[in-house]
Amino acid sequence: AKQEKMGDIVFFNERMGREAMEQFQLSQALRNAIPGHELIVYLQSQHDIHGQVVGAEALLRWQHPKLGMVSPADFIPLAEAEGTISELDRWVLEQVMAITRAHQKNLGLIRLAVNISPSHFARDDFVSHIMSGLRKHRIGGHHLVLELTENLMIQEITTVVSKLRALAGLGIEVSIDDFGTGYSSLSYLQQLPIQELKIDRSFTQAISCPQTGHPIVSMIHNMAAALDLRTVVEGVETAEQLSYLKHYPNTVIQGYYFSKPLPADQWVEDNLNPQNL
Ligand code: C2E
Ligand code: CA
Ligand code: CA
Ligand code: CA
Prior knowledge:
With 277 residues, the protein is an alpha/beta fold. Helices cover 48% and strands 19% of the residues. The protein is built from eleven helices and ten strands. It has helices at residues 2-31, 72-82, 85-107, 118-121, 126-137, 157-169, 186-191, 201-205, 215-226, 239-245, 264-272; strands at residues 39-47, 53-64, 68-70, 111-115, 144-149, 173-179, 196-199, 230-233, 252-253, 262-263. Strands 1, 2, 3, 4, 5, 6, 7, 8, 9 and 10 form a ten-stranded mixed sheet that branches. Strand 6, helix 7 and strand 7 (196-199) form a beta-alpha-beta unit. Helix 1 (2-31) crosses helix 2 and helix 3 packs parallel to helix 5. It is globular and about 50 Å long. The N and C termini lie far apart (73 Å). One calcium ion binds at residues 115, 149, 177-178.
């Protein structure tokens, strides 16, 4: 029995070692993603209840020459742990600003949303970096939405509020992403100058019946209405889910039912090319 136990320990250590090695190799590989031109921005349309495109969210993709397509669900947490997430976020921001600059005339009221990691938002130079990006591309902030998660509360509220005010001053809107999955008090939320709540896909998937819907989805919509915030419903895949959401005619819909994420070039071609409009 003792030997077996020892065997277990050895096996455990080897497995741990292998996983640590894989993580290590993945993080080494990730360092080369920007210089090696392995990253691609995808855009997923956001629609009004009738299907009209009102915006799009930028989603990062990593195409590694050997590993193939690595999911952001795998490499974003790694970059967060390694402290390199700001570089990735900033690379996406740069691409989105360049798209905005190039297609300003055809964007109309369309806004492009970019995900911002909490540790990136927490940086002292967060706002100034965005300002210099807008200056560099000679664009205003009115085509940009920043998606922050409830974890932005890792910072002191006065700092958070002053950063959000500065963004609002630039015309940039702020959305609270994955809303309902994190930990935020209503009183806190009420103090934040934000424009949008994004309802997490886990709640949308739980909408089974077009009549009764889902209590959390309706609760968040009511709350958003009370706070005068727009809602975006993430991960809408079925006609039943859409049908229930017609109870909230002003909500924005994002999900495979209307459209999947597309490489940014293709999204621009489909949505901003005057020949196709
Ligand atoms: P998220 O911000 O909640 O983004 C929505 C995710 O849901 C995306 O996954 C999108 O492809 C997926 N999705 C959209 N509609 C549907 C649907 O109808 N059904 C299903 N099953 N999925 C749908 P993706 O692209 O794999 O991204 C995963 C997460 O990685 C994102 O979740 C976000 O937290 C993070 N992420 C992606 N790009 C960036 C980035 O540039 N910066 C940061 N900090 N995080 C990013
Ligand atoms: Ca998001
Ligand atoms: Ca998210
Ligand atoms: Ca989500």
